[in-house]
Amino acid sequence: MQILFLQLFYKKIIIVLVMDLCWLRVPQWEKHGALLHGFLGRRGGKSAGPYAGLNLSFRVGDDSQVVKDNICDVKRAVGVHDARIVTMKQMHGDQILEVKDRNIKEAGEADGMVTGEKGLFLGVLTADCVPILFTVSGKKLAAAVHAGWRGTLAGIAPKMVDYLKERYDVNPASMEVALGPAIGLCCYEIGPDVSFPLVRQWGNLAEQCLHAKGDKKFLDLRALNSLLLERAGIPQAKIINIGPCTSCAAEDFFSYRREKKETGRELSFIGWL
Question: What pLDDT is recorded for position 12?
């Protein structure tokens, strides 16, 4: 296993290259020895065509056996071959599910999951939307969120903060959050059908993340979710953005926008050993 350190988005990240897979980790979370987490890209894997690389979604049209093989490769590479990585049927909404059953592969229709079970890992599948992973200082809790623009409009990220606070008696100041690779301000051109609802809902926070280039408007979706998490009570120092724009990094990440819809999905995951 080869570990490289580099400076990206002004923060150090850990890149693990193993079995041809590219696995991004948060260095600040290495102190949690039993916490296993990561943001995977498209490198490695057996998928072909528009899904070429490490596609981990059964819902995009890829060969199901190939996807199963890709999942097995991931579990071996990250060291959880006998564990379960649970995903969800992502709906671009604000539903949150608690996951306890180790025998399921998919939790149901939701865009957020929480678990307090050791050996159970939560997975988010993305190809431009923001994958958001949560952990809590002093508690064996893990949570994962899928935040597209509709989920961001619905407040899925701050609702996860409220969920952890109300269900698990967690102070937001003790939460740590990582927002993974997603489409960036450079590439995410939007129309008034997106910008107007976001500004109506989030006001100045949304306006800070909208930028005009000529007569076009672009959204920094990851920045907006970061601001919403900070407003929900998580200290800015504990909100970490990691990884590049998925639309720019064609060799490393799938992008729904770049590929005109037909593409694979990469996995972000978190859980306690």
Answer: 61
